[in-house]
Specification:
With about 210 residues, the protein is α+β, with helices and mostly antiparallel strands. Helices cover about 25% and strands about 35% of the residues. About 15% of the residues are buried. The N terminus is likely disordered.
Length: about 210
């Protein structure tokens, strides 16, 4: 009987191991102030409290602008920091280790541009993923387009900016691209050669 009880305790302990990762609400609240200098810890806690109350989660940050948390789950958060920037956070699994935090910060100008950073659960930065390496993957020539026209449109894409977005549902990262210095009709033409891509997490990086 005693051995059976010990066996059950071991089974439960093994089952609960993945739950040792800190929930996203705790990670958001423990984030170093220096990461978002204009948002205090008390304001970050307020946003979580508002989410729990199922009311609009917004605060006036230290710049007098509105910061809004629109999504918070056990492993994902999305926050509009101000009118020109946003942040997404997601816990990413690592084989035989604690999950790490993937942060996507995006500048929201006329065209959005993102960076992808990685942290451990104590907010020590452990790496980043360059998005420029994926530029060629986001460009594709339609079968009906001439090579000459394709090269003309490709030339119009520089400099191009890449926007990244984490999924709330799975461990994927979606990339999109746009050129900022174009007229409206040129942007419409450019879209014919831009292919949105979804990258999968392999336990180390997105591929």
């Amino acid at each position: 009987m005693r051995n059976n009880r010990l066996y059950m305790i071991l089974l439960v302990s093994i089952y609960l191991l993945p739950l040792n990762a800190k929930p996203m609400r705790e990670l958001w609240q423990s984030m170093p102030d220096a990461m978002i200098p204009y948002l205090t810890k008390n304001q970050r806690i307020e946003l979580v409290d508002f989410m729990d109350m199922k009311v609009k989660a917004d605060v006036k940050n230290q710049f007098g602008e509105e910061t809004v948390m629109d999504t918070l789950t056990a492993d994902f958060a999305s926050v509009r920091l101000n009118a020109s920037s946003m942040m997404q956070l997601r816990l990413m699994p690592i084989p035989d280790q604690d999950s790490i935090i993937c942060m996507v910060r995006s500048v929201l100008g006329p065209v959005a541009e993102s960076e992808v950073l990685f942290y451990d659960q104590n907010w020590n930065r452990i790496g980043e993923q360059s998005l420029s390496a994926y530029e060629e993957l986001l460009i594709q020539k339609p079968d009906t387009m001439s090579q000459q026209r394709f090269e003309e449109l490709k030339a119009m894409l520089h400099p191009a900016l890449i926007k990244a977005a984490l999924s709330i549902n799975d461990n994927t990262l979606t990339l999109d691209m746009e050129a900022p210095i174009l007229f409206k009709d040129e942007k419409v033409q450019i879209k014919s050669i831009i292919m949105q891509r979804k990258l999968n997490w392999d336990g180390k990086s997105f591929n």
